[in-house]
Fold:
Amino acid sequence: MDEIFVKNLRLAMSIGVEPFEREWRQPVQVSLLIRVSSAIRRSGAYYSYAPAVEHLREIASSGEHIDLIETLAEIAGRRVLEDTRVDSVEVSVAKPDIFHDAEAVGITILMTRDDL
Structure:
């Protein structure tokens, strides 16, 4: 099993349930841990993380508000799992600027093909 990762992709988004979170775009960090069979690599093929990153950038630049970081994580996970070569994906979404005395708050979800 190979694990392909994107670590702390920094985006500015309209996200959150608190009224103040609708007033401006805030920093969000998204990490992906994508698990695919090692056979893909051994066959000379590869899994590209670029479409998943581009999708997240498109969501951020759209300006559309998302209430929950859980929703963003699930949207990202479903997009990654659209590629049938992916066995599972862990998606972490963090908001670093919520508490001054915490590095970040967030969630990590694990999605498998069974979750589609």
In short: The beta strands are 2-13, 26-36, 86-95, 105-112. The two ends are 21 Å apart (CA to CA). Residues 50-62 form the longest helix (13 residues). The chain has three helices and four strands.
